[in-house]
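## retry 2 of 3
previous attempt timed out at serialization; input unchanged, resubmitting
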Amino acid sequence: MSRSTDIDLPADGSGSLRPGGAGNVDPSIEFTPDTGHPAGAASLLRTTTAIRQRAGALLARARRGESQWFRIGSDDALEDAARTVAEVTRERYPWDTIPYHSRWRHFEAGGVDRRLQLDALLGKGLDARQRARAHIDLTLVSVLLDAGAGPTWHYTEPATGLRFTRSEGLGVACFHAFTSGLFSSDPNHPLQADAAGLRGLVTERLGDAFQVSEVNPLVGLAGRAVLLRRLGEAMSEQPETFGDDGRPAGLFDALVAPLGAASPPTAEITAHQILSLLLDTLSHIWPSANAIDSLAADGSDNVGGSGDPAFALGDCWRHSAVAGPGLTNGWMPFHKLSQWLTYSLLEPFEWAGVKVRHLDALTALPEYRNGGLLIDSGVIVPREPAFLTRRWKAGDEFIVEWRALTVALLDEIAPRVRKVLDRTKEELPLACVLEGGTWAAGRVLAQRLRNGAPPLQIESDGTVF
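## retry succeeded, writing output
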């Protein structure tokens, strides 16, 4: 891979423009972070441009036969995968409108409109901004709890008796934990998440809310509780973004307020501005020790780095074949949960009247279902059958490369899906292809081949997968 990587940040928001800055910046200006310093390098690695460029380079390398881990299937395999996705999309959404891939789909599990339930609990006296604040609080804590639940865990909804597993179960369980006030420190305002409530969250209370027991174990319960406590700490340390009470809802005001005093229906932001704010304020909540200054430019270790939270990278991992300028050399970013959170925040912003543009600046989400679809479809082929039976860690190069290939290949599959469904990119952005879509098709193939289990075994602490 060439070292002459183009690192100009595009004006669609997929660079590191500050919230509210899109209308004030000449798009002809080229943003070139100083990657010789940790702050500039971290800034570059927090862009989806960097994700796509590096994932694309690893895909090109694999197609040249240079990967020790994978080979890439034929064009026919890509077409077959696209047709599978299109078929599943038609089955799931036979009507014209395909919604965004979002945590809010899980809140609809069992055909129950839980957004309507939440709005009823909030009462009629709230304006759109106040409702958005509650929606955002729920979305953020729920997404952070959305790593894989494991094959045996389930949640039975008390009011309906419906039994849910995996992502739907986690979503419904979190909805009821939120409405019960589990994440709020204020008994008079239970329908919120705040710094004090999250910092004081006891693992056992979270387990009780999720009906965890010896016979109903939830993978990574302790890690999930730690993540929420770290979220509480991070928000309390940044009142300029999250307010004095430290609520995720502060994201709304931080993004919309710089646009001026106009009402939200006139406001416009980009999807990547949401992601950038999340990464700039919350990257250091992730328990992985990945930091931009923990790897020197020559590839040698600087164990632990400086410990500065501004240099934390989160879901960004080392790969020996990834090249880049300065301190970014050797790093492959993904920011999967942060992007999943961004996708899930699109609707709360839009419901409040804020137009979110440039959705396709976000990437596909490299996780079990999307990546599993590509393995099960013969698009990504492990070089050794034993790779499918081994137990991996998130930082293993095999997993890092599989996730990068997933990002790049889903960018190739999306236009093929649109062609089969006769939709334009505007009618079917990547956010809707994922929902229609690739995630569901991955689950269908996993169910058909392995009773729902993913094709790879990865050790999870509940914060990446």
